[in-house]
Design goal:
Layout (H helix, E strand, L loop, with lengths): L9 E5 L6 H12 L1 E5 L18 H6 L2 E2 L12 H17 L3 E6 L2 H9 L9 H14 L1 H11 L1 H6 L5 H14 L3 H4 L12 E4 L5 H18 L1 H9 L16 H4 L1
Parallel strand pairs: 1-4, 1-5, 2-3, 2-4
Length: 253
């Protein structure tokens, strides 16, 4: 069934980078009488426009958008904060008689809405600094080996080259003595009803890689390097912040 033929109040539009989510979300929003809610852990940051392929001013004006440019790059935006922000937003959109169209590529955020969020300790700066220093010496794959020993289930879900999630899993274990995967088991869905889910599936990896390469070339021409240089001059900014660990920004830094 097409979403427009249903009584869906929440629709998920998922897909990898450069799969066409922005164009698809704009078209769907018009069909569904929807407002778009970004589910992207990088689009929340102000001043991170080029490297995130943030929707243009024209696209943002075409349909109401939410959870874009809601915090500074020096802040840590978490899955818990996302849930706290998005749930009342979805309710307001639905109360206005519209569909909430959640679109993005941060699966951790989608999973939290569908499956619930565990009660986890707040970030600990000292633990994170210690893990980051260890990663600088040994490399993140070595820390992934540590995670395999203390939380094998989380290790299967987290890639060795995903420092943000890897650091968080090890941090939670250090602070609680319990595996992250164990703490995440006893949760309840946060949405009152199941969403309709639409996935954009690339024709092939080669097709997607070509689109990503083309997009990166455009980003460089638009001044991505200069954008990151400007961010590096901000007071309080550093390479270990979640904003600067975002894909693209980590490599450019």
């Amino acid at each position: 069934m097409h979403p427009s033929q249903s009584t869906a109040k929440v629709v998920f539009l998922l897909g990898p980078t450069a799969s066409g989510k922005t164009a698809a979300s704009l078209a769907l929003a018009e069909q569904l009488n929807a407002e778009i809610v970004s589910v992207d852990s990088a689009l929340v940051y102000r001043g991170m426009d080029i490297g995130t392929a943030k929707p243009s001013a024209q696209e943002l004006a075409q349909v109401p958008h939410h959870l874009i440019d809601v915090c500074d790059p020096t802040e840590a935006y978490s899955v818990a904060r996302f849930c706290a922000d998005v749930l009342p937003l979805i309710k307001r959109i639905n109360d206005d008689g519209k569909v909430a169209l959640l679109t993005g590529g941060t699966m951790m955020y989608f999973n939290a809405l569908e499956k619930g969020i565990a009660s986890l300790p707040n970030a600990d700066a000292k633990v994170r600094e210690r893990l980051s220093k260890r990663a600088q010496v040994e490399g993140w794959p070595a820390l992934h080996k540590t995670l395999e020993a203390v939380d094998p289930l989380a290790a299967t879900r987290i890639h060795p080259n995903d420092p943000q999630r890897l650091q968080r899993a090890l941090e939670v274990f250090e602070l609680t003595g319990k595996p992250l995967s164990t703490l995440q088991k006893n949760t309840q869905p946060l949405l009152p009803e199941a969403p309709i889910k639409i996935a954009l599936l690339p024709e092939s990896r080669a097709w997607l890689h070509e689109r990503i390469e083309r997009r990166f070339g455009i980003m460089l021409a638009q001044g991505f390097a200069e954008e990151v240089e400007g961010l590096m001059r901000l007071p309080g900014i550093n390479a270990d912040l979640p904003s600067m660990r975002s894909v693209g920004y980590r490599q450019m830094w």
